[in-house]
Amino acid sequence: MKRRTGSTKLWTTLGKQAARSARRLQRSVTDSVLRTAREQSNAVGKAMGTAARQALSGVATPARPPVTRKGGTGGVWEEGLWGFGFGLGHTQRRYRLYVPPGVSAARPAPLLVLLHGCGQDAASFAASTRVASIARDARWIVLMPEQSVQANAQRCWQWFTPSTRGAAEAALLMSMIDHVSRRYAVLADRVCAMGLSAGGAMAMLLGLRYPDRFAAIASHSGAAPYSATNATQAARAMRGERVADAGAARLALAGRRPPPLVLLHGDEDPVVTYDSATGAAALWLELMPSDGAPAEPLPVRRIRRGTRRAIEVFDWQTRGGQALGEQPRGQTGASSTPHPFLRLVKVEGLRHAWSGGAPGQAFSDPTGPDALKIALRFFSVNGRGAA
After folding, report:
1. Where is this region: Disordered (predicted)?
2. Which of 63, 214, 229, 297 is spaced 20 to 30 Å from 169 by Cα?
3. What is the reported pTM?
């Protein structure tokens, strides 16, 4: 083997030095690019501002996730994921669950399914409704499913496609309810659903598709179910320009009675007009079984407490006073006082916001009477197993 000449050694040495220099240069360029990218990202983030970042998250006013207080004296918060298959797209949804103190197999509690509106998630809705303190005092377990941005960019529950995605989401929510009911001491005959806006419409859709599973339903500022089959129709339905399809609702009920319903709506709502609430009430009245007693309106009541917004309360009950879902008189557990199966609460001056909600949250009006307390009072005297 021949020895390398001096020039060969020189080229070899220069080649190694060049390689080392190239690697150092590459690292320097890479570091510079990454540093510039980070700086640009931070600058873009600042330029985007809070509103743009919130738009990307689909949440108008994000809130910190609710947490269990030390010792759990105020109840326990949990977070979970439930659905079919894998991923967060159209198959799974996150949820938050609140369990008040003292719930056990010996002391089960009713379950409230609380559905947020568009531009919200479970954490922001929990903050807006003050659900933990109210549910703790009333002793309700609360399940708060969360719509994903993969399913809907604005986090809207898809009530406006009742036979396709809406039906699939309703089935997913029902499966989630079953999952929670198996894990915790839930009173099976005291499961209720309530929602705001799109969540309110989805709560009513749940009640019509699974009427035997819900003791009562509440909708706050929601459009009438079965009033739209696509997004374009949904916009018109929210303006009160479309009538609910009673035939489609009857098919969903399959001969069963709809659960008792309470509707809360602001009479100055520019997003989902008050006509939507009267349309939902008209649908429920039309869905009364033909062999049952006709609905009987009760005297309208106007109520105002302190400086809170005034409300008008419209009630309907079956002739003879028996509410839908109530046991016949004389049977164990039956109520001795007649209660309405349908209630419409008109909140004067309220726009598209949760009545009595926390300040600083989007879609929340602190000046109104507390919507959650109104609904829980209705739930407590209506439906199967009501006290």
Report:
1. 319-338
2. 63
3. 0.82
